[in-house]
Amino acid sequence: HKRVAVMISGRGSNLGALISASMASDYPCRIVGVVSDRLDAAGLQLAADYDIETHVVERKDHADRAAHEDAIQAVLETMRPDMVCLAGYMRLLSGDFVSRWMGSMINIHPSLLPSFTGLDTHQRVLSHQVRLHGCSVHFVTEGMDEGPLIAQAAVPVLPDDDADSLAARVLKAEHKLYPSALRLVAEGKVRITDSGTVLFRDYPEADGDA
Ligand code: GAR
Fold it and tell me: Among 9, 138, 186, 194, which one has the highest count of C-beta atoms within 10 angstroms of its own C-beta?
C-alpha cells in the first residue's frame, strides 16, 4: 500500500471520501495522517474518528510562509508518506514546497480546469452561464490550480441552480473522482514526466461514469 497524507483547511468531505475508499482491501492506499492549517477544520474530527493521526500547523504561529511550510514539511516527513493529497487545502504552496513533492502531490479543484481557477467557482460558473461544470484532479505545480490534469468529471448546470445546489452536485462528483484519481497515480497508471506533461498507462476504459 502507498502511504498517503492529506492536507485540509476545512470540512474534510473529500478527506472522508478518500478514507472510505481506502477501507476497501483492494484499494492501493492507506491514509496515514492529516495536516490542517486551521484548528477549527471539521475534517480533523473526522480523521480522529477513524484513528488517523492529525496535526494542526497554523500560519499565525509562524513568522512567514517559508517557516509555515517548513513546519508542515517536518510534520509530513514524520508520516513518511508516498503521496500527499490536498483536499480543500486553501493556501497557495511555494515552488520550494511543491518541488519537494513534484509528481506525488495531487489536488482536487471544483471546476473543469483550466476554466475557473481560484475561489468561488460555482458562483462564477453561474455568472458565465456555462452549461457544464465539474471537478478536476491534477498534479500540484507552483501555479495555482495549474498542474497537469489527471482526471475530470462533468456535471450539468441546471436552470434552477444556485451556487449551493451546484456545489452539492459537484461535490458528489468530487467524492467519486478523487479516490479514482488517487488510485490511478498510486498504481503508477499516470505520472508526471520531467517536462511536466502527464503520461497514462493502461488507462481504464471510459464507462461514462467517472
Ligand atoms: C472542495 O469542493 C474542493 O474541491 C475545494 O474546496 C472544497 C473542500 O471541501 N477546493 C478548492 O477550492 C481548492 N482550490 P471538503 O473540505 O469538504 O473536501
Answer: 138
Q: Is 171 in the pocket of ligand 1 (CB under 6 A)?
A: yes
Model pTM greater than 0.90?
Answer: yes
**How many angstroms separate the alpha carbon of residue 110 from the centre of ligand 1?**
7
65 assigned ligand-binding residue: yes
Name residues of the chain where pLDDT drops below 70: 204-210
Q: What is the 3-state secondary structure (H, E, C) of 43-112?
A: HHHHHHHCCCCEEECCHHHCCCHHHHHHHHHHHHHHHCCCEEEECCCCCCCCHHHHHHCCCCEEEEECCC
Q: Could you report the predicted ipTM of this complex, rounded to two decimals?
A: 0.99
Which of 13, 123, 125 maximizes ligand 1 atoms within 8 Å of its Cβ, making it the mutation to test the pocket? 13
pLDDT of 72-94, one tens digit each? Answer: 999 999 999 999 999 999 999 99
133: annotated active-site residue: no
